[in-house]
User: What shape does this take?
Amino acid sequence: MSHEVEKSWKTLNKDLGRITALEQAVAYTARPLVAPGVALAFMALTGIVTAMLIGFDPLGLIVIAAAIIGAYMALNIGANDVANNMGPAVGARALTIGTALIIAAICETAGALIAGGDVVGTVSRGIITPEAVAETRIFIWAMMAALLAGALWVNLATWIGAPVSTTHSIVGGVMGAGIAAAGFTAVNWPMMGRIAASWVISPLLGGIFAAIFLAIIKTRIIYRPDMIAAARYWVPILIGVMGGCFTTYLALKGLDKVYKVSFQNAVLAGLVMGVVLTFLMRPVIRRQSQGMENRKKSLKALFSIPLIFSAGLLSFAHGANDVANAIGPVAAIVHAVQDGGASDQVSIPLWVMLIGGVGLSVGLLLFGPKMIKIVGNEITRLNAMRAYCVALAAAITVIFASWLGLPVSSTHIAIGAIFGVGFFREWYHERILKENRTDTLTPSEVRKRKRVVRRGHFLTIIAAWVVTVPCAALLSAGLFHVMNLISY
Assistant: This one.
């Protein structure tokens, strides 16, 4: 009898073991589906809340659909764009990826809700003229197609690991829908020419500024006999430059919807902040550097906290500006449904702002880690000093571009700055330090490892940038025709 009981227990244990193994296999298989499931739940919740606010009549259904697509776009912006702000700090190990996600989510949402603005251009910054799509139905489908095409393209780019401009994605979508709706004459081609020029100018400026600051750090701090003494003099100046730049940056691009500041006043405020911050930080850096060993690794602590603040400020300004890529077309559709037709400018309802702000954070938390790792670790190796140069270059480039009146992409600037840091390091090690990285006697695999910038990522990102506007435009044109046919 005892033998039979023991045998049955063994059988039961085997069965339980199989069930446990099956449960573990299901859990492992289902893990990749958790994030898309939460994203779908957020989109569904957006639709339900919008329906409660708008109603279920035919025009209300259009607004519900627009809100869901807007939520989808906001998720994709959070997944792709925010990596540009947090990736360098994570790559430099100044922040863990979990802490970076929390800081970015808070700052992005705050930027979107506090300084996201009451008014945006309904036709995405003048890409197509309102007169060309004056008929309400045509305008609604054009905006819907543009929004969906931009979101689908950014989603694809995130999936393949390419940081692309969400601004250019939505611009391409609006252009394609405008051409499909009213022909090539509907497009503001001079504006498109300026945007095309920014594809080249933005990353070049970011790379040049980042390389300049890295050159200052290398020549004035790192390659000095007493690095700590040099850091006590230069780090407060660099922090002052950062504080001044971000004061100007936020006045121009982050808070301009709350309080309009002229370019001259923004620069003056930045200069004052820079001088004050430099003097305030001198005793702080002196105390912080006491007892430090005279080696490069010691310098990381002096740059880490300013780097964290810069990443948070960039996220705030990004939330204030790029939320319009998700909710601008939604607001335009709401205005067209309620008041009829297109308009140069419309007010954004609070509930639409919430969709954009919350969507950015949800997309970041669900899908952001992949892009943060690519931007922070896989393009080139970053430490606190190099990442600091990237953040500083991003802020200065936006200020410089605003002065020139150029429409620029925060993505292109940040990635260009990372490339600038990497290529400068290659040049510096080969030309200044005389390290031979192209020695033909060295095996090719070793030579490739010595390259500071990974060429595979470089080519993938450049290719994605080049095709963003035309691909989004073609996709949008196709979606517009489908929507237009369905609506008849």
Remarks:
- The chain has a mean pLDDT of 81.
